Amino acid sequence: MHIRSRPDPRDVRDQSFRLRPASAGGFDAVELALTRKLVRLATRPERLAVVVNLLDDRDANRFTQTLVDRVDGAWVEAASNKFITGDGNLLGPQQQRLLAIIGFDPPAPRYPNHFVLLDQPVDWARVAAMLIRPLEPVYGADPGEEIELKVYEVGRPSPEDPADDIGDDESGLDEGDHDDGGFGGQPSEREPTGDVVAPSAPAEER
């Protein structure tokens, strides 16, 4: 991807990047770029959240998200019907089966979204696939529609928090200011404060 501006790679407090997959080489290219980003983030000491939001109808609350923890691994989630709004947006049996095929466990009392916990060593390509591959067949994303990728630091949860059970930057994410993202529930709804950039060519290995 061609990036018009890059954040300081030492600062991951909040970064936001909006793009249209059709302009970035398709969902596969976005998945590849996100894999590289996750590999870099996984080396950092902070506990980080990465959220992918569909922006064509933000009120529908369709998203995927993961925690990235250098020690404990990853907690990956895909939005469930508990948080998706609008009857036409709710997941049917076929969409929920697709999430299972992609690798998600069904929601449970303590885990209201579709989820999976991955211990170290984590296959970050698998995590990127779980964040991107549900967008089109499960949540109805169109390659020409805008999606948002966000990354931000989150604090360590208390022992009672179910999230505690998780066993040179060229991503195009821009910095701002964020909160904890609500893992085990909804992502943060605070608007990003960084610059918005968009790729102009398919992702390439760097």
Say how many strands there are.
Answer: 7
* Count of runs of 4 or more consecutive helical residues: 3
Spans where pLDDT lies below 50 across 5 or more residues:
1-10, 158-182, 188-206
> How large a portion of the residues is in β-strands, by DSSP E?
15-25%
Biggest sheet features: 7 strands, antiparallel
Tell me the strand order in the biggest sheet.
5-4-3-2-6-1-7
Percentage of residues assigned to helices = 10-25%
Radius of gyration: 16 Å
Tell me what the structure shows.
It is a single chain. This protein is an alpha+beta fold and 206 residues long. 17% of the residues lie in helices and 19% in strands. It contains 3 helices and 7 strands, in the order βαβββαβαββ. It has a 7-stranded antiparallel beta sheet with strand order 5-4-3-2-6-1-7, covered by helices on one side. Strand 2 (48-54) and strand 3 (63-69) form a beta hairpin. It is globular, with a radius of gyration of 16 Å.
Write the layout of secondary structure elements.
Layout lengths: L13 E6 L7 H15 L6 E7 L8 E7 L3 E6 L14 H10 L11 E5 L5 H9 L14 E7 L20 E2 L31
Antiparallel strand pairs: 1-6, 1-7, 2-3, 2-6, 3-4, 4-5
Provide key terms for this protein:
single chain, 206 residues, alpha+beta, seven-stranded antiparallel beta sheet, disordered C terminus
Question: Care to give the gist of this entry?
Answer:
Helices cover 17% and strands 19% of the residues.
